[in-house]
Amino acid sequence: MGGALTRVRGAWRRVGSYRGDAMPRRRSSLRSHLATRLRLLVALIVSVFASASCRTYAGHPVLLSAPRLTADAVPPEPAATAEPAPAEAALMFLGLEGVLRHLKALHALPVAQGPAPHFERLPEVAASVQARFRDGGFGGAVRNVVVLGTTGFVPLAPKAMADLMQDPEVERQVLAASTFRREETLYALPGASRVRYRAELLQMGMGPIRFDLRFNIVSERRDLPGGRVWLRYDPAAEPANERVTLWRGGVLLEPIAGGQTRVSELVILGTDIQVAGPFLGPLLQLSRSTLENRATNLWRRAWQ
What we know:
By secondary structure, the chain is α+β, with helices and mostly antiparallel strands.
């Protein structure tokens, strides 16, 4: 990448060196000179965008380390539309290879088609995440962790289901949140986007034990060949965040016969909430129920 930029800049300087008596006098030569500079400018802009889109998520902790994604680890296409995934798709879950491994396992589970999703609670994943970030993570201490895997079928195309999952008003309703809004579009390119959302769930808890949960989520999307769509969730550290110190995961959406889509989602929710022993179980159950209700409501919306 650096070498390409150096060559472009060098060519730019050479083209820009024509001045005074050295500048061609004929109008056609002038047009050619300007066209060359325009092409070099476009090449430089494309190179910068390519560099920006290939970030390795600096500062994001690696969860559940697994072998680096390889071509044969990409979720399979249906036989009728099988084609190799582009190399840049591997960057989608860079640093979250373990999350991708569990997503693929969810995707392979035999589940019935219908309007109700299938849940996997994955306690071993929750224990691994909590042990890794007990003393501090991306957004602070991670004292309690809930992990929910969801998989099933919806009667929508993958792109339509991804649009539904990225609609802030839909997410506010299915999560029963006080606020869920789009804060910033970090980039939007054909087949790729990255958006930051703000979520607020107020007065969560039971009896006198209540908490306000305020946090940011970064949702990244890739539309892949064959109609598949991948989503990735990352936390976004903000001074105004409260209690939620980790929201991470991803989604695989794959078209199947009959116009339906197989959807598999993994969500990791971590908080810095520390409560006494008798209250810990109900607190975790409440967090798990919140995620399960969100997925159930989302599936219902898709089947309407």
